Amino acid sequence: MIKSFQIKKFKQFNDLFLQHLKLITLIGGKNNTGKTSILEAFYMFYDIMNPEATLRHLSSRGIEFISLTPDFLWSPLFLSFDMGKKIEMEICENDIKEMIQIYHNQNFQKSVFSLQQTKTFIPIVKTNQPSLNMDSLNISYFINDKISCESHLTFNGHQLEMHFEQLKKPIKKVAFISLDAQRDPTKDASRFGQLDIHGHSESITDVLKIIEPDLKSLTTISQGDQALIYGKINLPQKIPVTHMGEGTAKLLSILLAIATHENGMVLIDELENGWHYSLFPDIIKAIHQMAQKYNCQIIATTHSYEIKKSIIKGLSSEDLTDVTYIRLDKEKDSIHPKHYESDMLIAALERGWETR
Question: CB neighbours (10 Å) of residue 59?
């Protein structure tokens, strides 16, 4: 399990150190303190060797059309949009320290050469064709301070290309549950299929009854070239889960992500959205049980005072040791985290202290 995460020169963070991370870590704070940016940093850390990694932070914020240029695509990743800085992220997990460094290289040299068509194949062992200088996002990955992988992300016309010097990379599976509009029901159908094959889908159905008591069963149904999850309730025919309400669809997405990311991590933006506060204790309890079962770490943002109260109400004193809360405070141009262990959070809520 990840115990700490340090972020330098990424988006609004000059140097942010998060520690005492638990099975469930909630992140709060006022607007524009970087709650969602922390989730994006976690996701990018484990997806950084994917050429699309630098696109995901845009799509998760609803940006659908972009200009494929370094300034537009890469500069938002850097502190103050300054690509002259170097991004560093470091994670400590089970006494292993993993780090990535990301920096902009305007003079990356890509060797190219052309082949003349001949009737016989002649191996090319060298060429005097000049190298091309181009913009690159250089990425280095370290394990315990020893470099393990290097890559260079470049543009080739309207495509992104990634050039590897070494291929070993982070392998932890991570899922990102975005805000409502960006969730993909076809991805949920795929994840449900993975569980259903092994007969593990009934536990998902039982938890969804917290929100939809009339739910009898779930199944995936293909129509055309896509599949969706349908549910059986007190109606003449099955209906898509998305028609059962946002709360049901969101909880389903979270549960499926946890169950298909064993020993991994699920990132949830604005955990409380879509649910009535009276359901929070039961939902938190179900998420905790699922996270324990699959050893899946949860990092979630929240604005809700009721969510924190519901954690105390929904979890036993023993289970509360699996939870920590971090509030982000902004002072001038710096973001500072304040960590609340479970006993400290209980004391703060009992005394009515402001923790949001």
Answer: 14
Question: pLDDT at position 165, please?
Answer: 75
The per-residue pLDDT of the chain, averaged, comes to: 84
Instruction: Annotate 18-44 with b (16+ C-beta within 10 A) or e (fewer).
Output: beebbbbbbbbbeeebbbbbbbbbbbb
Sorted by sequence, the CB contacts under 8 Å of residue 229 that are 6+ apart come out as 185, 188, 189, 192, 218, 219, 220, 221, 240, 241, 252
Cα separation of 71 and 200, whole Å? 46
Q: How many helices (H) and strands (E) does the chain have?
A: 9, 16
What pLDDT shows up at residue 125?
43
Kindly state the helix (H) or strand (E) to which residue 347 belongs, with its residue range. helix 342-350
pLDDT (tens digit per residue) in 206-237: 999 999 999 999 999 987 778 899 999 999 99
Under the banding of pLDDT at 50, 70 and 90, the label for residue 99 is very high
Q: Which of 78, 132, 72 is nearest to 104 (CA)?
A: 78
Is the CB of residue 341 less than 8 Å from the CB of residue 20?
A: yes
- pLDDT of 263: 93
- State the Cα–Cα distance between residues 232 and 259, nearest whole angstrom: 22
Q: Distance between CA atoms of 82 and 58, rounded to whole angstroms?
A: 17
Helices (H), 176-263: 185-197, 202-208, 246-259
Sign of CA dihedral 196, 198, 199, 204: negative
| CATH number for the domain whose boundaries are 1-114+127-173+263-356 | 3.40.50
- Give the domain ranges of the chain: 1-114+127-173+263-356, 183-260
**C-alpha torsion sign, points 305, 308, 312, 317:** negative
- Asked if 26 contacts 324 with a C-beta cutoff of 8 angstroms, the reply is yes
State whether residue 20 is helix, strand or coil.
Answer: coil
Residue-wise pLDDT for 27-84, tens only, equals: 999 888 999 999 999 999 988 777 777 777 666 666 666 677 778 888 989 999 999 9
